Amino acid sequence: MSNKKFAAFIVTFQRPDILMDTIQKILDQTRPPDKLLVVDNNDNDETKNKLAQLYPNVAHLKVGHNSGFAGGGKAGLEALAKEGYEWILWADDNDPPYTEDTLEKLLHLAESYGANCGQVGVVGHKINKRTGLVIRTTNDELEKGGEYLEVDTIGGGMIKVIKGESVLKGIVPEAKLFFGFEDLDHDLSQKRAGYKILVHTGLFMELRKKWNKVNFKKTSTVRKKDESVLWRDYYSIRNSLFVMVKNRYYLAFFSILFVSFAKSLLSYKYGFRYGTLVTKNTCKAIRDYGLNRWYKR
Q1: Which residues lie below 8 Å from residue 152, measured CB to CB, with a gap of 6+?
Q2: What are the sequence ranges of the domains in the chain?
Q3: What's phi and psi for 153, nearest 5 deg?
Q4: What 8-state DSSP symbol labels residue 123?
Q5: Selection from 123, 178, 119 nearest residue 156 by Cα
Q6: pLDDT in tens, 150-197
């Protein structure tokens, strides 16, 4: 087997202890990567120094600023693809593989499918082009679909193994998105280029059982979130509008606008302060998208 077969990188920001645990779990895989790279979004050397002490054989790439999962993903993919690696794991520092043979099974699927396989992963879904929403993969599809299932996107943290060839063709995350839907944007770019995106049905179903989501049903109720995580909604709205227009899903663009405003109004049932915070986030996201502003909040 070529020593340029499989590499992995982990994007990290200010979580050195969690990172070290994820590194160990990746190295403990039945098929560990031939090279492991840490893409460091910190502006200090804490992670670099800890890495040198505990895992001196793990490569380190310092970005020098917080480029988000999008910017870190772009840097890691480009660095490893240029070195000639055929398959590249794009990982977050708090999302290690779920089983000890996850990477072995994914690589086997990727290599056995054929030349137009762009990426493989554990959890993925189709996208409704009219609403922009995920169409949840059913249990029947996983149990009766064979070893794999074709999807539109594999979410971040769901063990995405990407074909290096596609990276060399310029299919990389939009760094300006920073955080939120950078994975969907990347995946739809792969599909437009003719690549197939596959999930391993066995691993997917195993994880669904582990998380007790076999009988999961999504509700339309607007739930109150902790105020400390409301900032995520800004990126979700702004970036999803960008992705929908880029892919000419214009009905989905207007659907997201309508739903975002509707959720803002409904959020006032949890109090004026909470509703105001949600509404401000929504308005700023739509404003910044319209003005082509790509702030990191």
Answers
A1: 124, 125, 126, 127, 187, 188, 191, 197
A2: 6-210, 227-290
A3: -155, 145
A4: S
A5: 123
A6: 999 998 889 999 999 999 999 999 999 999 999 999 999 999 999 999
The architecture CATH gives domain 6-210: Alpha-Beta Complex (3.90)
Which pLDDT score, from 0 to 100, does residue 291 have?
Answer: 96
Q: Are 152 and 210 in contact (CB under 8 A)?
A: no
Place of tokens 């993969």: 137
Cα 204 to Cα 46, 197, 260, distances in angstroms: 35, 14, 30
Any idea what the Cα angle at residue 195 is, between residues 189 and 200, rounded to 5°? 110
Residue 2 has pLDDT above 70, yes or no: no
Phi-psi region of 10 (alpha: psi -120 to 50; beta: other; left: phi over 0): beta
Quote the pLDDT of residue 219.
66
Structure-token match 């950078």, residue found: 182
Q: Which residues pair with 92 in a beta bridge?
A: 11
Residue 207 corresponds to which tokens in the numbers above? 């994880």
C-alpha dist (Å) from residue 233 to 17, 171, 225: 27, 26, 10
Digit-coded pLDDT (tens) for 222-249? 789 999 999 999 999 999 999 999 999 9
- Residue 1 neighbours by CB distance under 10 Å: 6
